[in-house]
Amino acid sequence: MDYRLEHDSLGEHKVPNTAYYGVQTLRALENFDISGIPIFRFERMIQSLAEVKKAACLANMELDLLPDSIGEVIVQACRDVRSGMLDSQFVVDVVQGGAGTSVNMNANEVICNRALEIAGHNKGDYHVIHPLNHVNLSQSTNDVYPTAFRIALVRYIDDLIRAIRELREGLDAKGVEFARVIKMARTQLQDAVPITLGAEFAAWGVTVGEDIQRLEEMRLLLCEVNMGATAVGTGINSVVGYADLVVEKLADITGLPIRRAENLIEATSDAGAYVMLSGMLKRISVKISKICNDLRLLSSGPFTGLREINLPPVQPGSSIMPGKVNPVIPEMVNQVAYQVVGNDMTVTMAAESGQLQLNVFLPIIAFNLFQGLEMLSRAFVTLRRRCIDGITANPERCLQLVKGSLGVVTALAPVIGYEEAASLVKQAQESGKDVCGIVRESGLPNAEDICSLLDPEMMLAPRERMKK
What we know:
The chain is mainly alpha-helical. The chain has 18 helices and eight strands. It has helices spanning about 25-30, 45-60, 70-85, 100-120, 130-135, 140-175, 195-210, 210-220, 240-255, 265-270, 270-300, 330-355, 360-385, 395-405, 415, 420-430, 435-440, 445-450; strands at about 5-10, 10-15, 180-185, 190-195, 225, 260, 310, 390-395. The strands form four sheets. The protein has a two-stranded antiparallel sheet with strand order 1-2. Strand 5, helix 9 (about 240-255) and strand 6 form a beta-alpha-beta unit. The protein starts with a strand and ends in a 16-residue tail after the last helix.
C-alpha cells in the first residue's frame, strides 16, 4: 500500500507512506488551505522547533523521564530536522487556528517518524516511539510554539542587523565620496541653504544605523521564554526542576542568552514583545522609505528634474518609451515599507485580541513578523548592492542650482539683518539681477565683504560673525 493508517481522537486517517508527518498534520492540511504558504517557508522556525524539542528531550532524559534508548534517537532526529533535511515535511499553512498546535504536532510527528526510521522501525510505529508521549513529553504547544517563535525571531533580527550594517557602510562610503559636492538643501521642497551631497548621504547612514542598537536590545528581550510553562504557565505535566533545566539546555543548544521568564503565566498570555518589535520594524520602514523617496526625487528627470544624482540603471523602464530608465530599486523598497507598516496593524490587533491565559493568534503574528523581517533584510541588501553602490553625482548640476538659488542670501542675515536680506531677495527676483550686484549698487561700505559671504563653501559650517 502507498499509505498507512493512523488514528487520533477523531478516528482513523490514511497518511502517505512517504510522509514523515502524521494524522494530525494531515488534518491541519485539510482544514487550513489559507495562505498557500507552508510553515517550512520560514526555515528558521523549523530550526528553532528542532532545538526546542532537542532541549526538552535532553532534559527529560536527565530527569529519568525518558529512556535513553528512545531519547537518543529523538535527539538524532532533531539534529536532522535542524539541518534542513526534512524541511519539506513541515507542510501546515502558516495561517491556522489552534494557537500553533498544528505546527507543534507537525514537528512532533516528523521528529517521531524520523526517530523510528533511525531506530529501524516503520513510520507510524507509535507503540515504539510516540509523537506525544515521547517527543512532546513535559511540553505543550503553548510553551513550545512561542519559545521556538522567539528564537526564530532572534535569528531573523540578526539577519536584519547584518543587512542594516551593510547598507550603512554603503551610505557612509558615498558620504566620503561626495564630501566636496556642494548642493542646495531644501526644506518643504523649497530652496534652503547649501550643504554637501556627502553630508546628505552621511546623515542617511546615521538614520539607518541608529536602529541597530534598538534591534540588539529587542533580541535580548526575545530571549526571555516561557519554556516549562506547559499549558497556561503552571507547569502542569512537568516535574520539579524541568523548567530551569530545559531552558539551560536550550541556551546551550542555541548559543543564545536564553532565560526563563520571571512569571510563566504572564509570559504565556502576553504578546507585548511582538508589538514592540513590530513597531520597531514600522519605524525602520518609515525611515528607509523616506530615504528612497529622496533618492527618487534627487535623481528625477533626468533632463527636466533635479538630476543631482544618477541611480544605476538596472533594467529598461518602459514598454512604450525607448531609453527610459526608472528608479525601480527605491520603488521596491518603498513597497516593502508599506507592507511592513500594514503588517504592524495586524500584529497590533492580534496581540490585543488574545483572551485570558493564551493568545491564540500567535500564528498570524508570526507570519507578519517573519515576513517583515525577511523582506526588510532582503530589501536593504538589494538597495545597497543594486542602487547605493552605483550612485554617481552630478557636481556641475548641483553647483549650478546653488548659484541660481536665492537661498544663499540667508548667509547675509546676521550681517545686514533679516529685513534687508529679504529685501535683496525680492529685488533679485523682480529684476533678475545677481544678488552681489545689487549689494554693490546699494552703496554699502563693506559691500565686497558682504559679497564674499555668498560663497557657498563658506556656508557649510559655523563661522565668525562679521560686524554689521
